[in-house]
Amino acid sequence: MPKVNIDYKSPLQAQETFEKVKEFLSNDESIKKIDSSIQTDFNDSNLSGDLKGSKFKAHMAVKESGDKSDVSIVVDLPMLLGAFKGQVKSTIEKKLQKVLG
Question: Cα separations (Å) of 31 from 43, 47, 65, 101?
Fold first, then answer.
């Protein structure tokens, strides 16, 4: 499976960043349109989570970086969607920018 690695520097502290990214990944309509069977499993104490569906999988983690934080998202795409890696990455980065400011 082709992987898309997204690293985003958030201006917010880790816990606030995690809550906002968790909300985005859980409720974003475009994610649900891509894969309506998507299920989320978040670990609040580790500031991480997984998305699993029939069309893709993803892992998210937030780490402290001083008074800010770093978001890492790795998306596993099926071979048929491998050509769209760049589009997937840019779309998620734009949505993170909107959600995290």
Answer: 20, 20, 28, 20
